[in-house]
Amino acid sequence: xxxxxxxxxxxxxxxxxxxxxxxxxxxxxxxxxxxxxxxxxxxxxxxxxxxxxxxxxxxxxxxxxxxxxxxxxxxxxxxxxxxxxxxxxxxxxxxxxxxxxxxxxxxxxxxxxxxxxxxxxxx
Length: 123
Known about the structure:
The protein is α+β, with helices and mostly antiparallel strands. The protein has a single domain (2-117), classed as Pantoate--beta-alanine Ligase, Chain: A,domain 2, CATH 3.30.1300. 47% of the residues lie in helices and 25% in strands. The protein has helices spanning 2-8, 14-64, and strands at residues 73-75, 78-88, 94-102, 110-117. It starts with a helix and ends in a 6-residue tail after the last strand.
């Protein structure tokens, strides 16, 4: 009777345990890669959002006629080089302004366009 009890109480074999461990390892590695990819996407989205705000601020400064500050723009923990390009419009009272914001390494590049009204003596 004790012999029958031992045969039915048999647990996992070493091979079954190794297979289960391998499946768990593969699942954990794929979850880690997915998490790292998600973190990279969120960081890139944050940089683009900050670049957009920096470009919109420069466009608003230009629309108000304020002088452009020198040097990089610091926004939400990022530094951006902001370039302003003015394109004449058929209407002499309007100027199309294109503002480009990019980080020093060239990433998170955003271009914002808008129309700015000009006065008679001011471009």
